[in-house]
Design goal:
It holds the Pfam family HEM4. The chain has helices at about 20-25, 45-50, 65-75, 95-100, 120-125, 145-150, 185-195, 210-220, 235-245; strands at about 5-10, 30-35, 35-40, 60, 85-90, 110, 135-140, 155-165, 180, 205-210, 225. It is an alpha/beta fold. The protein has 2 domains: about 5-35 and about 170-245, Rossmann fold (3-Layer(aba) Sandwich), CATH 3.40.50.10090; about 40-165, Rossmann fold, CATH 3.40.50.10090.
């Protein structure tokens, strides 16, 4: 079956120069953007149940912009005034610069890694090993941060501040696509929650990353396109190749 309409389970690109738009024009395909998941803050009550005091800490580790947003929104809800002496350690410069949305940016109190990987931020944390670190996290996370901080004997507290939930479809929303693209196992979970009677038939499913690929197969669905690969390091490159092959006359 030819691909005429694709649903990408991510927010619409902010730039008009997105490769998705190039693909749409190149093959005459309609591409819609609609996240299957959304991130929401814990309530103040849920946060308090973890019995963590923000002001007992002298530094915060941020691994995403979501973490920054939900840290400061919870502080506001809890009426916690973050002291100017608080230090911030971020996994990338992009995340570090995002802090400016909430506090005055000073290099002496904002630190970031070079590659976006947490392991590359650890040396900066070790240099400031007298700090008491707070690590805002999602309800779904792995133990990489805990393992590395424990290994380096860093005082820290991990605390859940936000969660990933299904972004439910309304009855008015059309769902008539030839192809669906997913980027996380949570997206697959949302698909099955929204459409418990989902019958894949000829609908092609593509995904990014091995964890998402596993989720597709675990849900009993057929995986038609998996990225990244050597030939297609990005989802858009993989999609371009897939549509070109599928839409051959």
């Amino acid at each position: 079956m030819k691909i005429k309409k694709v649903l990408v389970s991510q927010p619409k690109p902010t730039s008009e120069k997105s490769p998705y738009y190039d693909i749409a024009e190149k093959y005459g395909v309609k591409i819609d953007f609609r996240p299957f998941i959304k991130v929401e803050s814990l309530s103040a009550k849920e946060f308090r149940q973890q019995k963590v005091s923000i002001l007992d800490h002298t530094a915060v580790i941020f691994t995403s912009r979501h973490a920054i947003d939900h840290f400061f929104s919870l502080c506001a809800e809890l009426r916690v005034t973050v002291p100017e002496t608080m230090k911030y350690f971020c996994t990338s410069e992009t995340i570090a610069l995002y802090i400016q949305k909430y506090v005055q940016y000073r290099k002496r109190k904002v630190f970031f890694g070079a590659t976006g990987k947490f392991a590359d931020l650890v040396p900066s944390i070790v240099k400031h090993n007298a700090e008491k670190y707070l690590v805002p996290m999602s309800d779904v996370h792995n133990d990489e941060i805990k393992t590395l901080l424990d290994k380096n004997k860093i005082q820290h507290t991990e605390v859940v501040m936000y969660r990933t939930v299904s972004n439910d479809f309304t009855p008015e929303e059309e769902f008539d696509y030839d192809m669906l693209l997913f980027f996380s196992p949570a997206g697959i979970n949302s698909l099955m929650k929204n459409f418990p009677e989902f019958d894949q038939k000829e609908i092609a499913i593509g995904c990014f990353g091995p964890a998402t690929a596993k989720a597709v197969k675990d849900a009993g669905l057929r995986l038609d396109l998996e990225a990244p690969t050597m030939e297609a390091p990005s989802m858009t490159a993989a999609l371009d190749m897939f549509i070109r092959e599928r839409n051959k006359d």
